[in-house]
């Protein structure tokens, strides 16, 4: 016979117990965050969620049942690197979930089932800064006291991460994938990034290059005119110039090539090129007789050129600062041009050579001018793409040409290295990488798709070691030879 | 046993095997058919030192997640002798040394061994594992050949067939909710490699002269040598880089009188190399040389004032590269 003084399950009795439990949880619990999973894409037949994100985190008090810590030996070395298997059992209040979290997530997009905590959702556990995945929700322990259950017991295990987006706007949760280090590196420079990322090296803020020119008062090479482009060159031929008289300076020049010109006498080799122009590196000095020009090597034939001499031509151009941030060849202008009187005068012209690192490595003279009385000044154009801004963590970046998007993991403004995850395709070198929130924009210089992956991944090493010993004249079906 | 040697053949085969799989990607595609994430699958050689793994993979001790997936790992699991590929033990390779023109390198025939490899793929989603497996299997029919330079010293490149032996998969999804699903594919391969012994050096084996004799007569014990051809390779260009002088003026393709800056170091009846054209010095008068142009099928071309005039001497003969056919095309004209 049950005690007649109790109603054995009236709403008020149940409410009292629930209140007492809530009170206890608030006193002895730990404030964890509950991260509901957003189900973005599901695969049918194989029945898996292949794309999910965690965009919200709700603080809730929970009692930790692991009062004596995690089990022993939860960190093991497997063939897939270090695996951790810490497990956590948490008790949360039913009422608190129902009245606090359920209404907040109920009408959000891509949330399945808002009425109860569910398997697959995440718990951020602040002690130890870890992310747990709910494996199982036990709802009947303790068993129907006063005909009702008051708590959920969440059985959790450390999350296995793949490419889920974790963007809760709570900094201590969002930086978990950086290993808690804002730049994804420990103080000793060991990578702590979690998950597969690509490393994009961007062109930092541009610096304008500077250069100075000399002057050759007599017998310098003014310009070299190509009289016959020739054909069939598979590499750039060397430009030979007759030497200057004893004690004087012999000129140096280089050829630029053009492809796509069909020379009837050469077999149709799509890689074959012809000489487009000859640019002067050093106009030489002291020539009394016009030197001859010869093209040596390169595999082709027929190219010919003539030189023109002049007095008062621009001499060797020395780069005083290579600048940075160049992606295309800037304009080169000559200023402070003071000419001799009573002679024919022509202004000089030159082009700049841009290296893959975005600096100016050389200035090549296309016409050294004639009649200068003093060396003119050289002005090199500003870098056309100068990066601006600071990428913010977790924002989406877009390639201006490819349209590929990715998510920022970390940004190092000193080295201009951007680590990105969730890349949707292949970025293109030289396009601008634009941040959606920060508005930061930088040109892309290098892409390294090899994942850094918290010290496990060794793809880059294996590839570079194999390059030295493997003959991939046959194509490597799995990689770049 | 008898001497120290280490050709790194086993290590090279491990690297060669690994590189087959180091560029595999998986893609996640959403319902509107757009790629939402393109991941290159991390790969590593599984076995490592425990402290090193701990150091590089958990530098901060605390790791926020259990591990990241997908991952691939491979490991070398065993070696067996392969009698079917055995060749005679007495044969040797003899090749010219890559570094020293005066010596040859010699190695005996290798012993064939099969190396067993295991490639393991762990993923969070079966969809990922299927993408990886499907990118691997079609290339193994059932073998895929890799050309690996096994021994540097003798430039020995060998085709190493990598044979896919079997594929096993494990998908533990049943059971209570206290254990997680484990998705594991294991591919077993055999790499048919060759183990070479020590490479020795010999100085006497370089052929510097060849001789062909024609014998006449029907009596095999008493024949007469009618004719003998002796051929000694001679360099037709300069290899040493020795510059004797420079041209004092431009020279056309037809000039036989060549002005040089100083003819003092040039001797008559020798060969010179001017811009890869071989010329023969007939006589000299002051600083002018009378020469025969375009010797030994080199092409007479124009040369410029200041071009270097190089010598061709016996020192160049020694530097003729391996395999130079001296322009001989195989046709006698």
Q: From the structure provided, what is the oligomeric state, counting identical versus distinct chains?
A: heterodimer
Number of helices of chain B: 4
Distance between the termini of chain A: 84 Å
Helix content of chain A: under 10%
**Rg over CA atoms of chain B:** 32 Å
**Beta fraction of chain B:** 35-45%
Topology of chain B as a string of helices (H) and strands (E): HEEEHEEEEEHEEEEEEEEEEEEH
Describe this structure in words.
The complex is a heterodimer of chains A (481) and B (333). The model of chain A has no long low-confidence stretch (mean pLDDT 86). Chain A contains four helices and 30 strands. The termini of chain A are far apart. Chain B is mainly beta and 333 residues long. The radius of gyration of chain B is 32 Å and the shape is elongated. The two termini of chain B are 55 Å apart. In chain B, 30% of the residues are buried. Classes of the chains: A mainly beta (481), B mainly beta (333). At the A-B interface, strand 2, strand 3, strand 6, strand 9 and strand 10 of A face helix 1, strand 2, strand 3, helix 2 and strand 4 of B. Strand 11 of chain A pairs parallel with strand 4 of chain B.
Would you summarize the structure shown here?
Chain A is mainly beta.
What key phrases describe this protein's structure?
heterodimer; A: 481 residues; mainly beta; six-stranded antiparallel beta barrel; six-stranded antiparallel β-barrel; 4 helices; 9% helix; elongated; B: 333 residues; six-stranded mixed sheet; six-stranded antiparallel sheet; 20 strands
Give the topology:
The complex is a heterodimer of chains A (481) and B (333).
Chain A: H1 11-28, E1 30-35, E2 38-43, E3 48-54, E4 58-64, E5 75-78, E6 81-84, E7 87-93, H2 94-105, E8 122-125, E9 130-138, E10 151-158, E11 160-161, E12 165-166, H3 171-174, E13 198-203, E14 210-216, E15 220-228, E16 238-241, E17 252-259, E18 273-282, E19 293-296, E20 304-310, E21 313-321, E22 331-335, E23 349-354, E24 360-367, E25 377-380, E26 396-399, E27 405-412, E28 417-421, E29 432-435, E30 441-448, H4 459-469
Parallel strand pairs in A: 3-12
Antiparallel strand pairs in A: 1-4, 1-8, 2-3, 4-7, 5-6, 7-10, 8-9, 9-10, 13-28, 13-30, 14-21, 15-20, 16-19, 17-18, 22-23, 22-25, 23-24, 26-27, 26-29, 27-28, 29-30
Chain B: H1 9-19, E1 25-29, E2 35-40, E3 43-45, H2 50-57, E4 67-68, E5 71-81, E6 92-96, E7 104-108, E8 111-123, H3 126-136, E9 143-151, E10 156-172, E11 182-195, E12 200-202, E13 210-216, E14 224-231, E15 243-246, E16 257-259, E17 271-274, E18 277-285, E19 288-292, E20 308-312, H4 314-318
């Amino acid at each position: 016979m049950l005690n007649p003084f109790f109603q054995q399950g009236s709403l008020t009795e149940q409410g009292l117990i629930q209140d007492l439990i809530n009170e206890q949880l608030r006193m002895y619990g730990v404030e964890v965050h509950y991260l509901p999973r957003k189900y973005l894409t599901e695969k049918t037949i194989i029945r898996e969620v292949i794309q999910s994100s965690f965009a919200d985190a709700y603080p809730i008090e929970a009692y930790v049942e692991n009062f004596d810590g995690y089990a022993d030996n939860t960190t093991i070395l497997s063939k897939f690197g270090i695996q951790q298997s810490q497990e956590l059992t948490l008790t949360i209040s039913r009422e608190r979930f129902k009245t606090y979290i359920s209404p907040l997530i109920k009408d959000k997009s891509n949330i399945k089932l808002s009425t109860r905590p569910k398997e697959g959702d995440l718990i951020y556990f602040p002690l130890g800064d870890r992310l747990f995945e709910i494996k199982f929700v036990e709802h009947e322990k303790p068993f129907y006291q006063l005909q009702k259950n008051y708590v959920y017991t969440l059985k959790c295990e450390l999350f296995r991460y793949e490419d889920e987006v974790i963007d809760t706007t709570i900094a201590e949760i969002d930086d978990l994938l950086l290993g808690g280090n804002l730049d994804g590196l420990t103080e000793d420079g060991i990578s702590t990034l979690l998950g597969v990322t690509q490393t994009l090296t961007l062109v930092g803020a541009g610096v304008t290059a500077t250069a100075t020119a000399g002057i050759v008062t007599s017998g310098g090479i003014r310009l070299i005119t190509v009289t016959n482009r020739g054909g069939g060159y598979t590499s750039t031929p060397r430009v030979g110039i007759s030497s200057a008289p004893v004690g004087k300076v012999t000129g140096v020049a280089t050829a630029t090539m053009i492809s796509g010109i069909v020379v009837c006498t050469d077999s149709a080799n799509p890689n074959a090129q012809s000489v487009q122009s000859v640019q002067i590196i050093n106009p030489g000095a002291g020539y009394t007789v016009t030197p001859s020009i010869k093209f040596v090597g390169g595999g082709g034939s027929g190219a010919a050129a003539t030189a023109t001499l002049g007095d008062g031509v621009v001499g060797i151009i020395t780069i005083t600062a290579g600048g940075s941030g160049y992606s295309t060849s800037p304009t080169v202008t000559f200023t402070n041009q003071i000419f001799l009187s009573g002679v024919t005068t022509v202004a000089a012209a030159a082009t700049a050579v841009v290296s893959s690192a975005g600096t100016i490595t050389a200035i090549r003279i296309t016409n050294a001018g004639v009649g200068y009385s003093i060396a003119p000044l050289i002005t090199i154009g500003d870098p056309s793409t100068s990066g601006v801004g600071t990428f913010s963590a977790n924002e989406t970046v877009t390639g201006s040409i490819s349209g590929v998007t990715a998510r920022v993991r970390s940004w190092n403004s000193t080295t201009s290295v951007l680590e990105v995850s969730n890349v949707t395709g292949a970025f293109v070198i030289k396009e601008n990488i634009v941040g959606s929130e920060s508005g930061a924009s930088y040109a892309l210089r290098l892409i390294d798709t090899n994942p850094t992956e918290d010290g496990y991944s060794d793809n880059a090493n294996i590839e570079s070691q194999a390059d030295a010993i493997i003959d991939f004249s046959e194509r490597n079906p799995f990689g770049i030879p | 046993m008898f001497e120290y040697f280490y050709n790194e053949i086993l290590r090279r085969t491990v690297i060669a095997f690994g590189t087959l799989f180091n560029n595999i990607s998986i893609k996640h595609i959403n319902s509107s058919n757009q790629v939402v994430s393109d991941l290159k699958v991390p790969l590593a050689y599984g076995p490592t030192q425990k402290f090193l793994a701990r150091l590089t993979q958990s530098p901060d001790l605390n790791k926020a997640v259990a591990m990241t997936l997908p991952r691939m790992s491979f490991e070398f699991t065993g070696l067996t002798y392969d009698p079917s590929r055995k060749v005679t033990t007495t044969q040797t390779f003899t090749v010219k040394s890559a570094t020293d023109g005066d010596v040859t390198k010699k190695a005996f025939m290798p012993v064939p061994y099969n190396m067993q490899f295991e490639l393991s793929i762990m993923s969070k989603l079966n969809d990922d594992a299927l993408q990886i497996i499907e990118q691997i299997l079609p290339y193994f029919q059932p073998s895929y050949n890799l050309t690996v330079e096994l021994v540097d010293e003798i430039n020995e490149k060998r085709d190493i067939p990598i044979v896919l032996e079997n594929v096993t998969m494990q998908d533990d999804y049943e059971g209570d909710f206290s254990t997680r699903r484990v998705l594991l594919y294991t591919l077993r391969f055999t790499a048919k490699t060759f183990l070479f012994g020590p490479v020795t050096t010999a100085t006497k084996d370089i052929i510097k002269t060849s001789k062909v004799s024609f014998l006449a007569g029907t009596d095999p014990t008493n024949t007469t040598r009618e004719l003998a051809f002796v051929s000694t390779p001679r360099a037709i260009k300069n290899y040493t880089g020795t510059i004797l002088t420079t041209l004092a003026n431009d020279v056309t393709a037809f000039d036989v009188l060549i002005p040089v800056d100083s003819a003092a170091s040039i001797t008559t009846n020798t060969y010179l190399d001017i811009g890869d054209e071989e010329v023969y010095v007939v006589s000299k008068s002051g600083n002018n040389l009378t020469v025969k142009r375009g010797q030994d099928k080199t092409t007479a071309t124009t040369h410029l004032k200041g071009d270097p005039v190089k010598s061709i001497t016996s020192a160049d003969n020694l530097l003729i590269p391996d395999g130079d056919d001296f322009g001989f095309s195989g046709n006698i004209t």
